[in-house]
Amino acid sequence: MSANKESWGSRVGLILAMAGNAVGLGNFLRFPVQAVQNGGGAFIIPYLVCFLVMGIPLLWIEWSMGRFGGKHGHHSTPFIVDTMGKNRLWKYIGVFGIWTNIAVASYYCYLESWTMSYVFHSVIGTFRDLDQEGVSNFFNEYVSLGISTLGVPYEPIVFFLLCLLLNTWILSKGLAGGVERVAKIGMPLLILFGVFLAYKGFTITAGEDGAINDSSVGLNFLWTPNFDELWSPSVWLAAAGQIFFTLSVGMGTVQCYASYVRSKDDIALNAMSAGWMNEFVEVVLGAAILIPISIGYLGIDRVTEMVQHGGLGLAFRTMPYLFYQWGDVLGAIAGVMWFGLLFFAGITSSLAMGTPWIGFLQDEFNWKRKPAAWSFGIFVLVLGMPTVLFFEYGVFDEYDYWAGTVSLVVFALFESILFAWIFGMNKGWREIISGADIKVPNIYRFIIKYITPMLLLWVFLGSLFTPKGGDWTVAFSGNWQLDDSSIIKKIMNSGLKQQLAAATDPAQIEHLQDTLFFVNASRILLLLVWLGLALLVYIAYRKRVREGRI
Amino acid sequence: MLSTIFLVTGMMVFFFVKILTTPPKPEPDSYLDNDDEPSREPVPPKR
Predict the structure, then answer these.
(1) How many whole angstroms separate alpha carbon A65 and alpha carbon A252?
(2) Greatest CA span in chain B, whole angstroms?
(3) Distance (Å, rounded) from C-alpha A219 to C-alpha A246?
(4) Is the dihedral angle over the CA atoms A434, A440, A446, A449 positive or is it negative?
(5) Which among B4, B16, B30 has the least Cβ separation from residue A265?
(6) How far is A201 from chain B (nearest CA, A)?
(7) pLDDT band, very low/low/confident/very high, at B13 (cuts 50, 70, 90)
(8) Is it the case that residue A351 has pLDDT exceeding 90?
(9) Which residues of A touch B22 (CB under 8 A)?
(10) CA-wise closest residue to A117 among A97, A143, A91
(11) Nearest to A406 by CA among A26, A96, A43
């Protein structure tokens, strides 16, 4: 028998935990940048369409897969998918649902530890007397483990360890006593902090506190639709990609949380409630903070240039400086709120990443909750240390690309095919509507069977063969050259090799050569972890056969 | 911009209110906190 006797405390707690799983740093840092880069207000049209035809179907698929697996005593994807498909290989596809979480948690917890550290530095006023360059240099020094502003050796490592310890301790308290309790505190605080900062983002006035633009300039920049972009496949690909990251689908966490819901209880309304809560945080709060405040103080040109490198730089290198334009006290409070909301967004997601591994050990090897939680902490520590120590050599980005990007699409594609075509749409539909507290529109039967898998296949192929510069018109006219961002070119390290060929400075050449080494080493490490997990699944399978459970 | 903000906020509020106002299923259900409520005893099987 499995040692897994977990339960959720309340329905609201489950919704908040599931919404917390979905709400992550990407809601505040990735979404606004994607919108700016892909047609501003026009981006929201493909984004919402993808939410309706890919996001909601995937949520229903994953919730019902989880509840179905839970009925058979499974709380992680390898054996959840094994009960749905007759082919024995399905359980190895399910390995992605554990591997992705451990690999993503390894770098995500490091990112989370930055937010924890920045909350602390906002409280003690580290950024108060720094100019913009000073704040930016603080970040550079921090990630290169260069200096310790607190006199603590290797400060980022200390915060990383603290963050991991906190995650592990909460996970060891169980679902209702740990994860749910944090979600019940973290989500309301996150929304409260977000509403305050969004209010500030909406009320910036040119000439006040050093602002050079009204907030309307930033909001117009973000929201003015560029309808020319609407028909670009790249924009649709970006919108579909954003839906993945924001809903945390294709990871195995939704299935794990839902596996603790009894078969007669609702999942259809739960999925909609958690999904729309995530959309509120992303579209309403996420769009009202980073870009409007940055443009208010720095202007459109500088922000356009800065977002080319993503939202992370703006969040950590620029925002602490901008907050102090509102005065010392409000600057410190805004800093605590900004990094506090990012911390809550992060921890509610990283806790979700721990649960599939814990559920797997409890179900298959009869581990108790506490040792299973601590094993997760140790696993993440070992796998995460390279991202801390070799951050400058692209290890962090490599983990993010393979585990946090490609793997999600691959697993979601497989699970949508499994659900609609192998498990069967009739059984699948019965699972979705069983115990439902809302009427699920019948059109979704068609969407889940045809549209969602096709869209996922297109996203996967579009990422595998991305044409140069994202120019699909040229590609379809016969000149299909692959972009360096395509999966194939990434495997070949094309971009890095081009940089190496063009470099003349010996120091830069050495750095690029080291980067190439660490990038390849990261991939080998991640592959070994995947193989190790697959071996564990095989051992668990043999154990089940011996015990007559299969 | 405003129509998107109102649409997303409205949907979020609508579904969350529906969660709060929908009566729970009879015991045993998935949630621990309501296990001791006397009004939520398991429904006896029909004869």
Answers:
(1) 10
(2) 58
(3) 21
(4) negative
(5) B30
(6) 15
(7) very high
(8) yes
(9) 266, 269, 437
(10) A143
(11) A96
* Minimal C-alpha gap between B36 and chain A (Å): 12
C-beta atoms surrounding A504 within 10 Å: 6
Decide if pLDDT at A308 tops 90: no
Continuous H helices in A144-179: 155-172
- Spatial CB neighbours of A432, under 8 Å, sequence gap ≥ 6: A60, A61, A63, A64, A267, A268, A440, A444
Decide if A260 and B5 are in contact by the 8 Å CB cutoff.
no
Q: What share of chain A is helix, strand, coil (3-state, %, to 5)?
A: 80, 0, 20
Q: Where are the domains of chain A?
A: 11-464
Taking alpha carbons only, the member of A15, B18, B28, A181 closest to residue B37 is B28
pLDDT on residue A452: 94
pLDDT of residue B39: 67
Tokens of A174: 């169980």
| Half-sphere exposure of residue A123: CA atoms within 13 angstroms, side-chain side | 9
Position A4 pLDDT exceeds 80: no
The whole-number pLDDT of residue A222 equals 84
pTM of the entire predicted model: 0.92
Q: Which amino acid is at A33?
A: V
The helix/strand/coil state of A153 is: coil
Mean of the pLDDT values across residues A353-369?
95
Mean pLDDT, chain A, integer: 92
Neighbour tally for A224: CB within 10 Å: 12
Within 8 A of B16 by CB-CB distance, chain A residues are: 15, 273, 276-277
Task: Write out chain A residues lying below 8 Å of B23, CB-based.
Answer: none
Most confident range, picked from A2-16, A70-84, A204-218: A70-84
Residue showing tokens 């989370």: A112
Name the residue among B5, B14, B19 with its Cβ closest to that of A12: B19
pLDDT tens sequence across A41-97: 778 888 999 999 999 999 999 999 999 999 999 999 999 999 998 888 999 999 999
Q: Which residue of A has its CA nearest to B14?
A: A273
Rounded CA gap, A216 and A466, in Å?
A: 35
Quick: pLDDT tens for A384-417.
999 999 988 999 999 988 998 889 999 999 999 9
Q: Among residues A32, A349, A27, which one has the least CA distance to residue A186?
A: A349
Say how far apart CA B33 and CA A13 lie, in whole Å: 10
> What fold does the segment set A11-464 form as a domain?
Hydantoin permease (1.10.4160)
Residue numbers in B near A12 (CB within 8 A): 19-20
- pLDDT given for residue A2 in this prediction: 60
B5 vs A283: CB contact, 8 Å cut-off? yes
Mutate to test the interface with B, among A243, A246, A267, A277 (most CBs of B within 10 A): A277
Count helices and strands in chain A by DSSP H and E runs: 30, 0
Q: From the CA of B46, how many Å to the nearest CA of chain A?
A: 17
Cα A246 from chain centre = 6
